[in-house]
Amino acid sequence: MSFSTALSGLNAAANNLAVTGNNIANANTTGFKKSRSEFADMYASAMAGISKTQPGMGVKIAEVAQQFNQGNLESTENSLDMAISGEGFFTLRKDPADTASATVYSRAGAFKVNKDGVVVNSAGQALLAYVPIGGGLFGGVPDKVYLGTGVSPPVATTQVDLRVNLNSDSVVPATTTFVPSDPTSYNNQTSATIYDSLGASHQLTTYFRATSTPGTWDAFHYIDGNSAPVSANPSTALTFDTDGNLTSGGAIALDAYTLPGSSAAPLAATLDYTGSTQLAADFGVDALQQDGLAAGQLTGISIDSSGVISAKYSNDAMTPLGQVALTRFINPQGLIKLGDTNWAQSISSGLPVTGVAGTGSFGGIQSMALEQSNVDLSAQLTNLIIAQQAYQANAQTISTENTIMQTLLNI
Fold it and tell me: DSSP string spanning 154-172?
């Protein structure tokens, strides 16, 4: 009996050494979760139960349980690297398989783009994400994320927001007829770059001219030096009250302007002067924005804390590509270990619960970072010594039992 008891102790200690060694070996493995050997004692059972004097039959390995506590996050320079801070797993699909049974889960967030433009990990498994459905929303069945290298299409300017202050002390220009090339025929001017439907840039220049009516100004609009009238009128009136606030002429729709020598659609933009003032202060442009964009080339990607992956273009456009699909389990220790820092669903783990970062019990996502192994080397080295001592003690039990047996046999 003592031999078998000691052998069970040797096996348990060897298992502990192996588990500890595996933890130490993976101390630098991204997303790795350490394990521990969990032991249970053994007794021979009888009809009347276990005798108070029964010494026991040794020890058995109850489970090698993984510990899913958070690992440290380490910053990287790769925009596709992601780390989950909190609960959840990245959802991956074995590429090119496209079935639910090929879905695996991981905490390792080192991703890259393969030759087909799909975001994958080092094992070629595709990251799954919810697809854009418009309006900044994502949904549907999680699918692969494709990072294209195409051009971001241009956007024609339709709105120009221009907020200025016109000096209330300005005098009416001496030159009675407005001429863009004659600075004496207007008081102030400002320009904005706008874009046509092909992405070509144009200069929209606004000239301001004080009138003989207090609180009223004429605004003249030119595109590339050519007049862009409002309803066939060369100018529009801006009127201010006695407090210097704009009361009329806030939003001005320019007549559709056909661009000379261009196949682009006519430019039709609205100038919004809302918020402009007429105060006893120098002329100034307080705000200037327009909604047009030139064509742009892909310059990189960005990932926010909710896992939204967006393509960034040279024209400052941002195109959402998907929102990272996270999965959690009621009992993550019940997951099947697959290697490559991957796990698979099992009966013990429970059904997968899917969602996105920052909602419910799901943690957040940090881009340009990786979750490091949660192995504490100091603790593992200490455990290594303890496991070694246990192994040696059980070996000594066998040696002692052998000596006793030899003594008995030599009587």
Answer: PB---EEEEEEEEETT---
- In this predicted structure, the answer to whether residue 61 has a pLDDT above a threshold of 90 is no
Whole-number Cα distances in Å, 373 to 68, 89, 106, 335? 10, 15, 12, 18
Residues in the chain: 411
- CB within 8 Å of 181: residues ≥ 6 apart: none
The two three-digit tokens of residue 54, written as one number: 């029964």
Residue pLDDT, tens place only, 80-120:
999 999 999 999 997 555 555 589 999 999 999 998 889 99
Q: Which pLDDT score, from 0 to 100, does residue 327 have?
A: 96
How far apart CA 169 and CA 402 sit, in angstroms, is: 112
**Is there a contact between 255 and 231 (Cβ–Cβ < 8 Å)?**
yes
Pair 42, 61: CB distance under 8 Å: no
pLDDT in tens, 350-402: 999 999 999 989 999 999 999 999 999 999 999 888 888 887 877 777 767 66
- Give the C-alpha distances (Å, rounded to integers) separating 408 from 1, 21, 55, 97, 187: 15, 40, 21, 66, 120
Between β-strands 326-328 and 353-355, what pairing exists: parallel, antiparallel or unpaired? antiparallel
* pTM score: 0.73
Task: Write down the mean pLDDT value for the chain.
Answer: 88
Instruction: Give me the pLDDT at residue 167, please.
Output: 96
Which single residue is written with the structure tokens 């025929």?
Answer: 185
pLDDT at 127: 95
R_g (Cα) of the chain, nearest Å: 37
CB atoms within 10 A of CB 305: 13
C-alpha 390: how far from its chain's center?
47
Q: Which residues pair with 365 in a beta bridge?
A: 84
Domains for the chain: give ranges and CATH numbers.
2-69+373-409 (no CATH), 79-151+297-371 (no CATH), 159-290 (2.60.98.20)
For residues 29 and 52, what is the distance between their CA atoms, to the nearest angstrom?
Answer: 48
